[in-house]
Design brief:
Number of strands: 15
Order of helices and strands: HHHHHHEHEEEEEEEEHEEEEEEH
CATH architecture of the largest domain: Orthogonal Bundle
Strand content: 25-35%
Radius of gyration: 45 Å
């Protein structure tokens, strides 16, 4: 059996209410429950509009009253009836008649408001239940987290470990993501449905790792919801350069020292890199500051590879043997070049 909708209770009016009172009640409710103001009350506002369009129309109101047994109190009386009523009021009405009428009106008003409030609550609860059934919780995977870690070149060569403090987000343990409890915001998450907390995780970094490499820790990301999988934690490695090695995008910049005789005579030298030893052929008469590019020997990233750019610098060893010093003295006597002769002419 379908329960009929009591339009008078929905609007908070009575069968005796005038059209002006019905309009006033509708406007008041429309300001409060219009979907533009409160999207969750669309169904309730539909009932309010339906009640208004019925009761504001005399013909529809009459049919509605006849169908559901509502009766209006007669508003007109004959002249003799009025006179008789006035006489009775003058002779029988106690001095506090006005106060009694006012009290009776207030009681009737309070009762109407209570009935209307209960009706609104019932409709809203029913609407909420329907919406909750529609929105059945579906599994949702947690999001990934990315953290940057900076290590030195020696650590990159030998391998190392780091402890990172990662901010994780999970469902609020109190409200379980419902955000509201008994109509009020959850005190633990302030109505967000989520809680965030830091957790320390130790990460092992393998030897000979490259700059820009990513390590994946499965399941260490944000928590999944409703049975969904946790996200992953990605550790992005950044290798911090030193006085000899620097990174410029995918290119690796090396400052390599060479001896005076290597610069003069040329030859093949070995350069230590993260990829292992690389051989570089020096031409004779190599100058200090001269650059050499090794294509594709830089940082490798997906389908791209940078270059290794080597800048050589002539350096004198700090400790020389007696024989080496004698050879330098002999070279000095044999040399006839003045390399500083044309400094002002360049």
């Amino acid at each position: 059996m379908i329960k009929f909708k009591n339009y008078y209770e929905i609007l908070g009016v009575t069968p005796d209410s005038s059209n002006a009172e019905i309009k006033s009640a509708y406007r008041r409710l429309a300001r409060k429950y219009h979907p533009d103001v409160n999207p969750d009350t669309a169904e309730l506002f539909k009932d309010i509009t339906e009640a208004y369009t019925t009761l504001i129309n005399p013909e529809k109101k009459k049919q509605y009253n006849m169908l559901h047994g509502f009766f209006e109190t007669p508003k007109t009386k004959t002249t003799s009836q009025k006179a008789e009523q006035e006489y009775k009021e003058k002779t029988t009405t106690p001095p506090n008649r006005e106060q009694n009428i006012k009290s009776s009106f207030e009681k009737k008003k309070d009762y109407s408001e209570k009935v209307f409030s209960d009706k609104i609550n019932d409709i809203f609860k029913e609407f909420t239940k329907k919406e909750q059934k529609k929105k059945k919780a579906e599994p949702a995977n947690g999001t990934d987290i990315t953290v940057d870690i900076t290590i030195g070149i020696a650590e990159a060569l030998k391998g190392t470990s780091r402890t990172v403090n990662v901010l994780h987000t999970q469902l609020c343990p109190k409200c379980k993501g419902r955000k509201f409890i008994n109509g009020a915001k959850c005190s633990d998450c302030n109505g967000t449905g989520e809680k965030s907390e830091y957790r320390k995780i130790t990460v092992k970094i393998p030897a000979k790792i490259k700059n820009g490499a990513k390590l994946r820790l499965k399941g260490e990301g944000n928590h999944g919801q409703n049975g969904g999988k946790n996200g992953d934690l990605y550790i992005k490695i950044k290798i911090e350069g030193n006085s000899k090695v620097k990174y410029d995008g995918l290119n690796v910049l090396y400052n390599v020292p060479i001896t005076p005789f290597e610069a003069v005579l040329g030859g093949e030298i070995e350069v230590n890199t993260l990829e292992g030893n690389v051989k570089l052929k020096l031409p004779a008469h190599t100058n200090s500051g001269q650059k050499f590019r090794l294509s594709g020997m830089g940082v490798k990233q997906k389908n791209k590879s940078g270059d290794m750019i080597i800048t050589v610098h002539i350096e004198i060893p700090q400790s020389l043997s007696d024989d080496e010093i004698k050879l330098y003295e002999k070279l000095k006597k044999a040399s006839s070049h003045n390399i500083r002769e044309n400094l002002l002419n360049d």
